[in-house]
Amino acid sequence: MGAGIKLTPRAGGVSVVGNKTAAPAGGRGRSSVEPRATGLAEPATALQRSSRNDVHYRAGRARTLSIIGHAPSGAVTPPLDPRTILDTVAPAPTATPALQLVAADMHAVDTVIQQRLGSDVPLVGQVAHYIVGAGGKRVRPALLLLMCAALGCADPRRHTLAAVVEFIHTATLLHDDVVDESTLRRGRDTANQVFGNAASVLVGDFLYSRAFQMMVDCGDMRIMRVLADATNVIAEGEVLQLMNMHDAHLDEAAYLRVIRAKTAKLFEASTRIAALLADADADTEAVCAEYGQALGAAFQIVDDVLDYEGDAAELGKNLGDDLREGKVTLPIICTLRRCHADEAALIRQAIETGGSQQLSEILRIVRASGGLDEARAWAAREAERAIAAARALPTGGAPERERHQKALVQLAAQLLTRRA
Cα separation of 229 and 227, whole Å? Predict the structure, then answer.
């Protein structure tokens, strides 16, 4: 099944056949774009902007926001036991699960989604309803709604914008499954398996364009800028991940750069939009964005851990897919640093060739090496950063706002123990 371009696996990255751009010979397949320290200057790609300290989308204000919380290059942050976080934020026995607090709002979002999926082209509706109807956690729209409630914001546009976020996310899933040649998502055949690659890519394009129609209807240029930048960063992150395929020497910094673009950026956009809807001040906007960014990073790290230790039935996808595709994620990076030389050679060979013949043995090595625990410790540090941001939200002593603030704290802690 073709994805439009042909990738030739090799040590140190991939070659893109039929395109003038290829990873440098003998290189590691990484982008030459390096993050700058501060500011938002033009001209620059969206990924460059996201790699620097983010800025506030508020006229006349440009207070910077720190990016993914990890040790500087060359430094190693001491491991953090995820149980430490869970012990400190144990919910009260009568506490309502975080996502249940916005159940009524999510019902309103589902109504918007169904209304805006319509098209005069029958295939568009078939594919769109297939992927949207597959369910999923819908964490991103729920996050926008939870943050709105924590800020005391009841702006009616929040439901439409939550649907916009879900459309953008769903479009990325359609495109990802084609690029990755995936066959299973959420426990059933992927859209590209059912309808073909061309239909999946084009309906993904439809969802992107419909999302932009909806955000225009909301009539706020600041929100449009947040979502436009986020969408561009996500696309660049996916290309960066493509360049890193089959690179057995990828390090934590390169991995984190990818996940803060392809995953954390939409989480950050969701919580930042809540701040803009609430007309929050610049400091509060920074806190909201920090929460979303940290939560998104933790979410992706845990997702990558589950690819090696989860249950396929619970996950709704095949275990070891990342390894089959030549993706180097944090559990593998941590394992390569810990395992014996012959085990590391076996893993590197699998990465560089994209083979799955040794999958069972590699799963055993990853689980026995302590690499999964180390990766979860990275996720715990990001969750801890999200919790600190949530606790810094101003609630004004309003009980309902405090309730949703505590739910944001609990959501970040519980993410560390999710199994799907």
Answer: 5
